[in-house]
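Collaborator request log, item 7. Partner lab (contact: R.S.) asked for a structural prediction of Cell division protein FtsA to inform their binding assays.
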Amino acid sequence: MNRKGDKSLIVGLDIGTSKVVALVGEFSPGNPIEVIGIGSHASHGLKRGVVVDIESTVNSIQRAIEEAELMAGCEIRSVYASISGSHTQCKNSPGIVPIKDGEVTYADMDRVLEAAKAVAIPSDQRILHAIPQEYIVDNSQEGIRHPVGMSGVRLEVRAHLVVGALSAAQNIGKCVNRCGLQVDDLILGSLASSQAVLTTDEKELGVALVDIGAGTTDIAVFAQGAIRHSASLPIAGDQVTNDIAHLLRTPTPHAEEIKVRYACALAQLATAEESIQVPSVGDRPPRRLARQALAEAVQNRYEEIFEMVQAELRRSGFEELVRAGLVLTGGAAKMEGVTELAEEMLHMPVRIGIPQYVTGLGEVVGNPVHATGVGLLLWGSQIENPRRPASAPGRAGTFWSKVKNWYRGEF
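Returned to partner:
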């Protein structure tokens, strides 16, 4: 826990494939979090969301943290960090416990969630999240969201479990620890993003969040107010950059620059007359290229991304439940023409999700790139200030204190 005067500070560390971003939020219960610091540094130590080079990642985290500390005028000791990558999987799992005193308490809710986590998972994986979707008291036909205080003898939960590779989680922990920081919690990227950009109505109606970053495209599907499915696809903005580098025979950094400045995801948005200047490899002179050829290459890759998203929605079995449509976020969602292309391909309403529910720095609040970082702040604030009275001491020691002790033992 970081402090500044009488306010708590929460730090979100979005460890992405292309960059590491640290956001500092100032938070007092009952008020929205105010983002007061940001630090960002290019990252080269990750491939498709997973740490492949510890030194390089440590360096990026260090630089991002220092920059954020400078801007916020504080010292950072612990962070909520993001994790993603196609090693993460989800399963929906039930749990059942007897209700101790004939009336559901918070302790019963903790116990029933523990029961849902008692599933056989391979020793090289671990449960990152267990999120209750709904509860059932005795044989209630309807799912119950808040069972505390209800009478009954048996409490059931349907929970969404997110499982990830143990090594991937440990490597992120290692990188953060090497910077002299503690991990308050590791949070799945798509869950964090959905905290920041989705509305309650959308989660009720049914919505798919698609966070297109550089290395991964993360998906989270909500219906009836709870998460139903989560996945991470190993194709995203970096593929688009590679396509441009191949097409134009130009080095990747130039390709990235051209993508950001000139690319669009719908070929018809580029007129035949427009052309762009392309730096060549070595000391050859630059060339000119029709912007339309660039747009076609980019559109093909985005089509592939959306085809994979659609296939994932079908596979999850929740495609029919996504009535509010698709919310796109992440850096690769900023490109011109992406929403139109997605609507055309998926036949559902699509909007760009920008971080909400926080105030402060304009460059953060209105920018889909920071959806995950802002989501980490929101997630952290709910853990540190849960919307429930503390359970009587000595009774059910909270889930998070267990987790924190377990983190300290783990790395």
